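Bit of a strange request maybe. I'm writing a small parser for structure token strings and I need a real example to test against, not something I typed by hand. Could someone generate the tokens for this chain?
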Amino acid sequence: MVETLKVIGLDILNGSVSIVFSFLKILIPLMIIVEILIVYKVIEKLSDRLQFISRALRIQKQSIFPLLVGVVMGVTYGAGTLMEIGKNTPIPKKDFALIGIFIFICHGIIETSLIFWVAGANIWVISFGRLFLAFIITFIAARIPAIDRLGDAAGPSETSREP
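Reply from user aminoacidic:
Good idea to test on real output. This should exercise your parser:
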């Protein structure tokens, strides 16, 4: 009985370590590529070309970049970018809310899709499904009167804090 539990425990440990290394083989190069895209302002140029999304989601142009960062890199980077841009350019509370809704549903799309792929899932179905669902829900939320009332009032920023 004890020997069987040892074998099962070693199999679990071996499988877990194998999966972690598989994830690392994907995540480390991915993070390097994303950092390079940010340094060379590729994502910023992409946000200019995706201005039609900002119109559909009723957010301002400067809000598209943090949305893209959140979708590609995840919630933390997206929120950090949103706050950093909010320091220099006032971003409406409505944009904060809508970006939050979108990123809540669809964040870190490449990273999580590749993780699901390692687990055997179809990454195209997962990626497009999450993007579609996030877009539709945010599109509807942008037209809800309670969110629309947030209007053009600037959201939280470093300059609005009391010393």
